[in-house]
Design goal:
The chain is an alpha+beta fold. Helices cover 32% and strands 33% of the residues. Strand 8 and strand 9 form a beta hairpin. Helix 1 packs across helix 3 and helix 2 crosses helix 3. It starts with a helix and ends in a 7-residue tail after the last strand.
Length: 248
């Protein structure tokens, strides 16, 4: 067996071992696998051999190389969180907060500030008047996956604690405190990219794809009373919907 054949069989054997680790979830979906240097020490081979083996896994769609992060196991559809489009408020809330996954919530900021012009235009309140704002991260296994910014009238919200705000969706807390029933959400979904601030918050690269969702909450008299901006990581969420065909 010549040296070239030995080299080829070696990186194939390394690739098969790494592939088995990915498929058995020893390297879990979304995690960063050990570096080329660490793997070369573990397998007792050169960095070139590891690089060749990694190239095979990339070609098979098992891993992806991310600058500044490393080589990451690809999240397949079944490992991503579905956001349901059904027209049901309950379905939207349940999927957005992902109750079954027990996501962690980190409250970054709660403040009252002069209302930005873009928000006052949506909520039909005078620009510069006070607005209550909350910023939150939702995390899965300590990894940030979505970023929320809520805007609301400040009255009756000043005494809310972090514990209360982590316990249930903010919209339900707001309805209880204000005695206002929300009957409709006007939702807009756009493709977006992570600017430098969002990239740091969500631990992604500058320019990585995101879902941007704007929710305007309307009361029974069709008045906009709440606004939420949400940024979902594109590699952690998928949008799913049902289309019913009318029977003749």
């Amino acid at each position: 067996m010549n040296s070239e054949t030995t080299f080829i069989s070696l990186y194939f054997r390394v690739a098969e071992t790494l592939k088995r680790r990915v498929e058995s979830k020893q390297y879990a979906p979304g995690t960063v696998i050990p570096s080329e240097k660490e793997l070369s020490v573990e397998f007792g081979v050169s960095n070139i051999t590891i690089r060749k083996a990694m190239a095979l896994l990339v070609k098979e769609g098992l891993v992806i190389r991310r600058r500044g992060i490393g080589t990451q196991v690809v999240l397949r559809e079944e490992n991503r969180i579905p956001l349901k489009i059904t027209g049901s408020f309950k379905d939207w809330v349940d999927s957005a907060v992902s109750r079954r996954l027990k996501l962690e919530v980190e409250i970054l900021e709660i403040s009252v500030l002069p209302c930005p012009a873009s928000v006052s235009a949506i909520l039909s309140i005078p620009a510069g008047s006070d607005i209550w704002r909350m910023k939150r991260l939702r995390k899965r296994q300590q990894e940030p996956i979505s970023y929320y910014v809520n805007y609301a009238p400040p009255d009756r919200l000043s005494g809310l604690t972090d514990k209360e705000l982590k316990k249930e969706p903010f919209i339900r807390i707001f309805q209880k405190l204000r005695g206002i029933r929300i009957v409709k959400i006007e939702q807009r979904v756009e493709a977006a990219i992570a600017d430098i601030d969002l990239a740091q918050l969500l631990q992604v690269r500058f320019g990585d794809p995101l879902f941007f969702v704007q929710n305007i909450y309307l009361s029974a008299d069709n008045k906009p009373i709440l606004l939420t901006h949400i940024y979902f990581r594109g590699d952690r969420y998928i949008y799913k919907g049902d289309i019913m065909l009318r029977r003749r």
